[in-house]
Specification:
The chain has helices at about 35-50, 70-80, 85-95, 190-200, 205-225, 230-245, 250-260, 265-280, 290-300, and strands at about 1-5, 10-15, 25-30, 55-60, 105-120, 120-130, 135-145, 145-155, 165-170, 175-180, 200, 250, 285-290, 305-310, 310-315, 325-330, 335-340. The chain has about 350 residues and is α+β, with helices and mostly antiparallel strands. The two termini are about 40 Å apart.
Length: about 350
Amino acid sequence: MFNFKEAQLEQLAIHFIGNAADEEGMTLSKQLIQIDADITSLLKSYFLKPFKEQELYTFHHESDLDLNEIFHYVSAIFDDPGSLYLQSINIAKHLYESSSHPNIKPGELYISYFDECVINGEVVEVLGIFKSENKDTYLKVYPQGEGFGLEGEQGININKLDKGCLIFNTEKESGFRVAVVDNTNKSNEAQYWITQFLHITPNQDSYYHTKNYLSLCKNFAEEAFPEADKVDKIDLVNNAVEFFSKKESFDIEEFNNEVMQDETVIEKFQSYKNNFQETNDIPSYDEFEISKQAVKQSKKFIKSVIKLDKNFHVYVHGNRQNIVRGFDEQLNLSTYTLYFKEES
C-alpha cells in the first residue's frame, strides 16, 4: 500500500508546542530548517518508518469539510508548496489550541513535505505532521586525555515516533487519505491528536470493512451465545477468520453458508449485525474486497485459548469435534477430552 523508497524530503519546519492548560505557550521558528544531506536519511526513517500498511482515515467536519482546519491548511500547501512555512504556523497554533488537556505533554512539532511517495500504486506528494513528546537519555562517550569521558544527554529516539500523520495528496474531494500513528496518551480523555487536532474519521475501504466484520464476529460469539461453552465460541471465530483468510472478497450469503451454517444462528447473526451497526454507526456492506492486512492485524486481538484455573492453557485452532467438554462427578471437576492422532 505504502512505498517510501524513493521519497524525497523537500521542506521541513519545526516549532515547539507547550500545554495550553498550563499556559506554556509556543516557540515558533522564524524560518524553514536547512536540511543537511547527512541527516536526511535519519529524518526519513524517523518520520516514515512507523507507517506500515494500516487503516486509513479522511478529514471530516460535521457541516463543511473546508471548515476542518488541518484540511484547509494542508490543501493550501498542496496548492502552493512554497506556503509551507506560513501554513506550518497556522498548524502549530491549531495544535496549541487543541492541547488543553492537562495530560498532554509539550514537545516539538514537525511539518514536512515529501515528493515521490506511493500509495496504492499512485505517486503523490505527502505532507507529514509529527510531534515528539518523550525524551530518552543517551550515554555519550568521548576521548579525554589518555582515556575517555562520559556524560548523559537528552535526545529523541528516532525509532520511537510519539505522534504523527501522513496526508497523501489524493482524493481531496473526500478528505484526502490520512495515515496516523499515536503511541502516547492512550486514555480516552487525552485522545486529542485524532479527535480534536486532526478531526479525522476512518476511511470506509476494504481494510475498514474487513476489520469491522471480524470485530462483529468476535463480539457476536461472546455476547450472542452466553450459554455456549468457550470451545464453540472460539470455533465460530476461528471459522470466520479462516473464511476471511482464504477469500479474496466477502459475500454475506457465502459467509453464512460456510461459517454460520445453521439457519437459527444465521438469523441471530443478522439481528445482532443490524444492532451492532446501528449502535456503532457503521454502514452495512454485505459485499466488499477483503483486506489481508486487516485480517493479519485482527488476528492479534482474537484469543483462541481456554484458561483452566491456573494450571493449563488449551489452544483451539480447529477440528471442534476433537475436543469435548464434560464433568467428572466423582472428582466434582469440569473436564475437557482431547482427541488427536500425533503428538509432537
